[in-house]
Amino acid sequence: MDYLLKHGSDDSIRSLRAHSLEIQQLTHFHFIDEHKDVGQASKQHPNYLKITKLFFSVRSKVKQVLELIHDDSKLREERDKAKKNRGKYQGYGSDTPGAFRGGTTVIPNYLLV
Fold first, then answer.
1. Model-level pTM greater than 0.85?
2. Which segments of 19-97 are extended strands (E)?
3. CATH second-level architecture of 2-89?
């Protein structure tokens, strides 16, 4: 949702806004482990730290998303920031011209002419 708000189309933003009540329900996120609600896991639970971290990350991310959904100026600012950084973090995939494959460099055909 965060990615769609920052990089998605206007339609994706409208859709997220239309579903903001459903998204808001995630602020009360619960985790079921072996048919037991461990949302209020005791410190003796074997996965206590993992569960606590999961709850915190889901609930905090939802709060950030809802803040962007309801604050046009902050959303615009985040979208502008994402747009500026879009070309900054490009990686190399297997189909990238000049990418290494099997220890050799693949030279695109248009460079061989």
1. no
2. 32-33, 36-37
3. Alpha Horseshoe (1.25)
